[in-house]
């Protein structure tokens, strides 16, 4: 309701990660031009530090104490807004104003650099709602469970704006935990489920879900943020209501979450959900938009001649160049995740070792207990037996307690590349 109130007052909403450090919050505040901040008291300290560093007065900070928390001394509760008087909503009904008026500045994932403030207009959110919920209407009351970060474009449209427009019931979890998640799905008879690959994997590997039909109320499920293997997707599908589709969606912050759909006959259009641009970031706009206004997503895709469907296989910047061959990390990751002792995996290209070539490297999380003794050679042999020789993990294998990911579940391969380059600069050379 706060988000709608911000828009109703003519303001622009931006949400940030509650785990951010003062430095990260400072970047967010500067990039979005935030002037007022509302926060729960538990995470107030780094926000105060960021506000001081960016010059925002503490009087512009309100404490969101909806659970009866104590308001820190010297700060004000958001409830003070109730006594600030009333004013009618800012209203407009013309297309031009709708297209040009910002409703939110949501941030890109930051997989290739600092997160960018992406301007999303009222038209973007209207189009997103129509695309997802109105083109193919559900013949039932939509009930959703939100355990994804609501400051991110993956969840914000369907959590903040669509429930009011569509009359949806949305239950919100403070954070994801598997037992609480499946319990709430069953308790509230959730019909529409949105997950990211780590949640999907956790669901299909859960003994509780295999023993009891927790998910049988779900009539449609979708997974995004990163590729999901066909095996996991199919296992999740059979856990849902009979005949319920389980699909992978493609989208990005710049397309207001899910990308546009096309009809049978349509004049080329840049898409009503596409952002008009990054907020005050001319360099990013110049590199991402062409002179005709088309946004270049950076995805690698192919069109199947039989199905006439487009398949997104990877990000252009993430393809690994191996002696003239192009290796897609998701293919290697899918094979690694099929190993019974591996619970998570990420693959990058190791550069700076060979001239004009990269070496595939895997970062792997072993299954606790049984997987503790899994060795680098065993992982390399497992993949080598299943894929072409040029896809071998010649850059080595590194074991991690957890693969670094952003709040929406997307693997932060930039972080892995930076760590790998430190090794190379320190003299690391794999045995080839």
List the helices and strands and how they pair.
Elements: H1 2-8, H2 22-32, E1 37-39, H3 44-54, E2 61-63, E3 76-77, H4 95-100, E4 102-107, E5 117-121, H5 122-134, E6 143-146, H6 156-166, E7 169-172, H7 178-187, E8 192-195, H8 197-204, H9 207-211, E9 220-223, H10 230-237, E10 246-248, E11 251-252, E12 257-258, E13 277-278, H11 282-288, E14 299-303, E15 310-315, E16 320-322, E17 325-327, H12 329-337, E18 342-354, E19 357-366, H13 376-384, E20 397-399, H14 413-425
Parallel strand pairs: 1-2, 2-3, 6-7, 8-9, 9-10, 19-20
Antiparallel strand pairs: 4-5, 5-13, 11-12, 14-15, 16-17, 18-19
Helix pairs in contact: 2-3, 5-6, 8-10
Keywords:
432 residues, alpha/beta, three-stranded parallel beta sheet, three-stranded antiparallel beta sheet, 20 strands, 20% strand, globular
Briefly, what is this?
The protein has 432 residues and is an alpha/beta fold. It has helices at residues 2-8, 22-32, 44-54, 95-100, 122-134, 156-166, 178-187, 197-204, 207-211, 230-237, 282-288, 329-337, 376-384, 413-425, and strands at residues 37-39, 61-63, 76-77, 102-107, 117-121, 143-146, 169-172, 192-195, 220-223, 246-248, 251-252, 257-258, 277-278, 299-303, 310-315, 320-322, 325-327, 342-354, 357-366, 397-399. It has a 3-stranded parallel sheet with strand order 1-2-3, covered by helices on one side.
Tell me what the structure shows.
By secondary structure, this protein is an alpha/beta fold. The protein is built from 14 helices and 20 strands. The strands form 8 sheets. The chain has a 3-stranded parallel sheet, covered by helices on one side. Helix 2 crosses helix 3. The longest helix has 13 residues. The protein is globular, with a radius of gyration of 23 Å. 33% of the residues are buried. About 2% of the residues have low confidence. InterPro entries: AMP-bd_C, AMP-bd_C_sf, AMP-dep_synth/lig_dom. GO terms for molecular function: CoA-ligase activity.
């Amino acid at each position: 309701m706060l988000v709608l109130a911000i828009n109703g007052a003519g303001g622009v909403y931006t949400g940030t990660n509650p785990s951010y450090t003062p430095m990260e919050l400072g970047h967010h505040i500067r990039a979005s031009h935030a002037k007022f901040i509302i926060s729960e008291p538990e995470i107030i300290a780094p926000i105060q530090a960021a506000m001081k560093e960016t010059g925002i007065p503490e009087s512009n900070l309100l404490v969101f104490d909806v659970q009866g928390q104590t308001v820190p001394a010297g700060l004000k509760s958001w409830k003070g807004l109730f006594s600030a008087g009333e004013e009618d909503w800012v209203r407009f009904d013309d297309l031009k104003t709708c297209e040009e008026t910002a409703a939110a500045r949501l941030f890109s994932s930051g997989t290739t650099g600092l997160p960018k403030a992406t301007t999303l207009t009222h038209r973007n959110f209207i189009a997103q709602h129509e695309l997802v919920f109105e083109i193919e209407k559900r013949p039932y009351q939509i009930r959703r469970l939100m355990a994804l970060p609501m400051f991110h474009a993956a969840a914000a449209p369907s959590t903040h704006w669509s429930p009011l427009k569509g009359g949806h019931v949305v239950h919100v979890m403070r954070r994801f935990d598997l037992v609480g998640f499946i319990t709430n799905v069953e308790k509230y008879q959730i019909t529409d489920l949105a997950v990211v690959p780590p949640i999907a994997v956790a669901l299909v590997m859960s003994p509780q879900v295999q023993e009891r039909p927790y998910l049988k109320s779900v009539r449609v499920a979708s997974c995004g943020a990163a590729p999901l293997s066909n095996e996991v997707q199919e296992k999740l599908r059979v856990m849902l209501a009979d005949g319920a589709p389980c699909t992978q969606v493609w989208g990005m912050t710049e397309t207001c979450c899910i990308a546009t759909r096309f009809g049978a006959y349509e004049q080329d259009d840049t898409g009503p959900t596409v952002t008009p641009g990054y907020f005050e970031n001319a360099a990013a706009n110049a590199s991402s938009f062409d002179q005709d206004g088309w946004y270049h997503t950076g995805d690698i895709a192919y069109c199947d001649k039989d199905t006439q469907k487009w398949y997104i296989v990877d990000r252009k910047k993430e393809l690994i160049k191996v002696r003239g061959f192009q290796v897609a990390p998701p293919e290697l990751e899918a094979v690694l995740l099929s190993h019974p002792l591996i619970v998570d995996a990420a693959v990058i290209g190791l550069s700076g070792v060979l001239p004009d070539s990269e070496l595939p490297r895997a970062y792997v999380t072993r299954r606790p207990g049984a997987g503790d003794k899994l060795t680098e050679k065993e992982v390399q042999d497992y993949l080598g037996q299943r894929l072409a020789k040029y896809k071998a993990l010649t850059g080595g294998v590194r074991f991690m307690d957890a693969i670094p990911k952003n709040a929406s579940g997307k693997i932060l391969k930039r972080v892995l590349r930076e760590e790998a380059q430190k090794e190379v600069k320190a003299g690391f050379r794999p045995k080839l």
